[in-house]
Amino acid sequence: MNRTSLKIISVLLIVFSCIPVAWSQTNYNNPNYGFKLEVPEDWHVYAEIKDDPVQNHAIVSWGIPKVYSEIDKVSVENAISIIARKKPELKSLEDHEKFEFDRLKSILIKKELIAEAPHKTYITNTMINGLVYKSKSVIMYKNNIGYILTLTGTPGTFGLNEAKFDLFVNSINFFKVDEANETSSNVVIPDNATYKLKMDGSDFYFDKKANIPKIVRFFSTDSVKIKYTTLATINRPMNINDEMVFDVTGHYKIVGSEIEIQLNEAKDVLDSTLVRYSIKVAGQNKIFLQETDKNGRHFDYWLELIHPKGE
User: Using the 8-state DSSP alphabet, how is residue 180 labeled?
Assistant: First the structure.
């Protein structure tokens, strides 16, 4: 995947394209978070958490047909997202607004309030992995739920999609949640499945001192094995033509929309034995992840299924 194809959700980098005539529509409904709408059939969901009982939020992002950017000289897939939050400590529109911008502060370059009514609306510029994005975010508070609706694009595509985003915002039907009939959803990883960890379309996770392809296998016993193949060790130099393979074992657990991997050891491979990712969506063949480092920076990954029942 081209690095200009945007995929972000917790920072929530979400991108769009120009306005086509929507002949066919697809219904989307989240009864636990009180919103439903119709979207064109050529939009595809690439990240979704229906209901995270730990973080008390729901997330959905759609990828939109690519458009050509005269600035970037490449076709870019844009996207739109909805984040809905039911955090008990957030009791007003202002609370949700502050929470959202606190979450984005590590990547936020600039924000500008462009409207107070009918909805509070911001234009923001952010930087992720060295790339600059432009976003439009609408913040709402309805029925004790906060909503962040976001369009994110490259500087060369944002203007092509703004009108489409405005139509999207006005098309959403918000309703009061019937708490007695709420449904729960949990992320499930298939037993004995083997995945390859990928980032920005590459098979490599980029470490400061090494490019490390990672193969991850999850076992039915809640144990995990990660295979690293590297051309350089983390803590000591070696010939660039040398290759070393590390097998690291441990255990994993899923809590809401987060997966936590506790490794038995990580000498010469990782800085820490504890790895924690936010799961953005668990599909049939891919699991999209996001990691936040100690400096608050966000990194997107995904696990791509190689073997459904082992190596």
Answer: G
Would the pTM of this model clear 0.70, i.e. be above it?
no
Which helix (H) or strand (E) segment holds residue 38: the answer is strand 35-40
Distances 94 to 18, 97, 137, 139 between C-alpha atoms, Å: 32, 5, 14, 9
Give the domain ranges of the chain. 25-181, 194-307
Quote the CA–CA distance of 257 and 185 in Å, as a whole number: 10
**Helix runs in the chain, H state only:** 93-104, 158-171
Do the domains at 25-181 and 194-307 have one common CATH topology?
Answer: no
State how far the Cα of 228 lies from the Cα of 246, in Å rounded to an integer.
5
Q: Which among 88, 66, 83, 84 has a CA at the least distance from the CA of 75?
A: 66
Domain 194-307 annotated CATH 2.40.128.20: yes
Per-residue pLDDT band at 18 (split at 50, 70, 90): very low
* Distance set, CA 52 to CA 42, 183, 203, 304, 305 (Å): 27, 11, 29, 22, 23
CATH 3.50.50.60 fits 25-181, yes or no: no
Sheet strand arrangement including 131-142: 44-52, 57-63, 79-85, 145-153, 131-142, 120-128, 108-115
Which contiguous run of DSSP H or E holds residue 217? strand 211-218
Yes or no: say if 58 and 51 are a contact pair by the CB < 8 Å rule: yes
Model confidence band, residue 292 (pLDDT cutoffs 50, 70, 90): low
- Alpha-carbon distance values, 157 to 5, 20, 127, 134, 265 (Å): 11, 15, 16, 9, 45
Q: Which two tokens mark 285?
A: 């063949």
pLDDT at 104: 92
